[in-house]
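Suppose a classmate hands you a notebook page containing two proteins, each written out with its sequence and a corresponding row of structure tokens. How would you begin to make sense of it? This section walks through that situation. The first entry is reproduced here exactly as it would appear on such a page.
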Amino acid sequence: MYSNRIPVLLIAVLVLLAGCAGGADVAPAADADDTDTPTDGGGSADTDASSDGDDFELSDPERLLRDAGSFTVSWSYTGVDADGVETAVTREFAADLDAERSYSRTTSTTDGQSDAGGVEQYVADGVTYVRVGGDDGATYTSYEGSTEVLATAIALSQARAYGADDDLTFAGTETFDGASVERYELSAANEALILAGSAAAQGEPRTLEVTSFEYVVLVDEDGLSRHESWSFSGRMDDGSEVSGSWEYSLTGVGSTTVEEPAWLDEARA
């Protein structure tokens, strides 16, 4: 049985890794011929969705999203540290692989105050356009080239990243974004899930007693993780309260379109 007393930095790093694992750039997918995506008749053991509703199993997300042609991903994190400082980060992007367009926006706040106004990226025709800052002082740039959008989308989904899939339990079916999904839950602080961030922890971390922990994954009939939520709260060894949560959603699969942002002309100037 895993003890609920764990280094608090491990929790913090775990959440940060979930947000930054895919990098900051979002762009249309590379040509399918340049990937290692399995073809019909071959693939890894997790290629096909589970036929048993009680078993947690995911299909190959890269293949499924390429086949769908478009999708929207949103990710958010909110946390309160031992000093009472609240940090919030949001990230969203939309990709139309067929039109070779994508759009992303990242924002962050500290105690409700915006940090630098956010970053937006728009990719079309092999050019990346970037807007940094708020309406009062935005700056723009553009450059040839782009990065792989699917890598970002897959990285933001953490359902397979921390070894939690063996402990997730089936909790029924529901509907998400118009799709029938199976719900899987984890209600105990799983050792592998938390210790995944330990390599990046530095110094001598203080300890945290976890008072609540919940992890939920919604999987559609194709084996795609469509929604994930992760949350914890706890108490530091000095009595201060801390908490954290992140949420991931995959929507508009096959129906997402990407429009030009209102600031595109300024970025082109």
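The notebook's second entry, a different protein, reads as follows.
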Amino acid sequence: MVLGYLLYEAVDLGVNVVKITYNGARGVYYWWYDADYPEVKREKQAIENMEILTKRIAELEKTLKDKTD
């Protein structure tokens, strides 16, 4: 039982070390090359698309109002 617990903790520690190393290296890479994370790029693109759609809706509402008058 103790051996299983020690193996579990060793694997858990190994996984966490790999994750920290990967995330740290990824952060340094994007910082060094002054680039945005892909997640940030997708979020910015989604916000930009929403702004475009909001403007189009406003234009369509204005056109519809002008046609009804």
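A careful reader of the second entry would note: Residues 16 and 22 are 10 Å apart (CA to CA).
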